[in-house]
Amino acid sequence: MTQPHWFPLSLRVNGLAVQALVEPRQHLADFLRDQLGLTGTHLGCEYGVCGACTVRVNGRIVRACLMLAAQAQNCEVQTIEGLDAQGNFQDLQQAFVQRNALQCGFCTPGMVMCASALLEQGGCPSRTEIRAHISGNYCRCTGYEAIVDAIELTAQSRAGIAKA
Amino acid sequence: MKPAAFQYLCPRTLDEALQALALHGEQASVLAGGQSLMPMLSFRLLEPQWVIDINRLPGLDHIVHAANHVRLGALVRHAQLLESAVVATHLPLLAQAMPHIAHAAIRERGTLGGSLCLADPAAELPACMLALDARFALRSPHDQREVAAADFFQGLYQTALAPGELLCEVIIPVPAAGSAMVFEELSRRHGDYAMAGLAAWSHPASQRSRLVFLGCGDRPTRAPRAEALLNARTATPPFAQLRAAIDADLQPEADLQAQADTKRHMATVLLQRAWPHL
Whole-prediction pTM value? Predict the structure, then answer.
């Protein structure tokens, strides 16, 4: 086949306007890591199973390995590096530290991005609901209990039930 | 684990998309939510020359209730179905099934049309569509037709979709008043594909029902003998009697998750659980 036309991509990443030429087959996670140097978005499985590459596109959590970079045209992308630009999730990050919710740390960015969407819904999700929400994110240290603790603690603190 | 090179098209109108599909035919893959297509590209199970991204097509993400039907655009995301009041009110079977579909981040991208056109026999939505008697509106540049769910699913990943055709809308009749609906499935972990599942509709007053099993054949599969038992409106029959009906109705193949016999056992368990609610 003829050489694919590179795609002129224009989007916002963590609040900053970005323009780049991308290969059509490049997925969003590779674009963020290799072209923008935002290596906080981790690549585990690269086929949508592990959740390590979870980012937010127009506010919604997505797998960055299951979306072409070209599909993010004119979108607002938020990565772990930009999650806390407004300080909205310092409590969640603090709770991860406090509850020892990261061991090797590989799954942590995906876990935090995934949990941020749940916490934004407000209220106090049950541990079962938290587990269901992060069920698509693998922690191969199997530190799920502590991760659920951290998310639960953050939700409870926000609802004024517990003190972080 | 990187896709082979392809040309990327992102049409902005349905006509443009249909023309591109007609032009490139089987050398093109349609990219909707991408939650199955992207892995297949990464594994190079598919190496299309063209990827036609339909995500920017207008007017394909509606959920509308009118004239006793619910019309769903093919680009409706799973998360939209999960959050929809129209679906919760008029199609409780779908509302029950949605939380079983994958995980939050997958549901944000995955689309109704994508799931139906992939036709994975263990997927929830195809079975629900068969149970609900849905019709699928297919378009090609100079033609349009409607296909019943019963005719759409033709085998393992096989559908009635012809090369160059695009699924645009799903039309579901609102179940008659007094209908009962149950969705149940058994999977190893939350969000995994089901080892066996059941999408069930019944209308006791008219002694009609649809019992559609997923993960128990090469496509969503009705269980006519079990339906006949249910339509007789007796109390829950003994397990052995249900199992005999299931054995006659379903011929599942063993897969990585379960032996055929295990699947028939699970299908019977699901039927027994659903029975009192139907």
Answer: 0.95
